[in-house]
């Protein structure tokens, strides 16, 4: 287990550290694939954040879109499934009072892991330090040391985002074609796809 921040658990897991300079592993097929992207409003809806937060986080480099950044007026950012999962985790960490510096380190750590690793990870925090737990034993060790106050099961966040995005629109990166979510009442998007 690793953590962000200065604190270390005695005889327990180590803190999460940023991994600057590392390239994130390739993402797998499915909703996490780079072949499907999500525009800003869709990413906001799935992550439970405002567009103002999304814009600020992108401009400050906290969570940048990995598929397509905005290049001036008229261009749209395009976020991957993984980006949306990270956005939702950042929101939860902010809501619990974790410092922005520790969140930045946690984001770097999350980006350095493969998609399979993320689904198995639990982030625990005492409000100052963020710890990665990849097994139930590490969670127990952290709690017994009196360190952990709250936890975020990344796999649960993943499923929440997957469920939310299935109801929303995505976009094929190669063609720009809109992928209509499971909204039976969204006839307008279906017509646009048929006409194009």
Lateral arrangement of strands in the main beta sheet: 1-5-4-6
Tally of helical segments: 8
The radius of gyration over CA amounts to: 18 Å
Instruction: Determine the mean pLDDT.
Output: 78
Percent in strands: 5-15%
Largest sheet: 4 strands, antiparallel
Shape: elongated
Number of strands: 8
Could you tell me how far the N terminus lies from the C terminus, measured between alpha carbons in angstroms?
50 Å
- What are the secondary-structure elements, in order, as H or E? EEHHEHHHEEHEHEEH
Structural class: alpha+beta
- Which regions have little confidence, pLDDT < 50, spanning 5+ residues? 6-12, 19-34
Helix percent reads 40-55%
What features would you describe in this structure?
With 196 residues, the chain is of the alpha+beta class. It is 41% helix and 13% strand. It is built from 8 helices and 8 strands; from the N terminus they run ββααβαααββαβαββα. Strands 1-5-4-6 form a 4-stranded antiparallel beta sheet. Strands 3-2-7-8 form a 4-stranded antiparallel beta sheet. Strand 4 and strand 5 form a beta hairpin. Helix 1 packs across helix 7, helix 3 runs antiparallel to helix 4 and helix 3 packs across helix 7. The longest helix is centred in the middle third of the chain and has 15 residues. The radius of gyration is 18 Å and the shape is elongated.
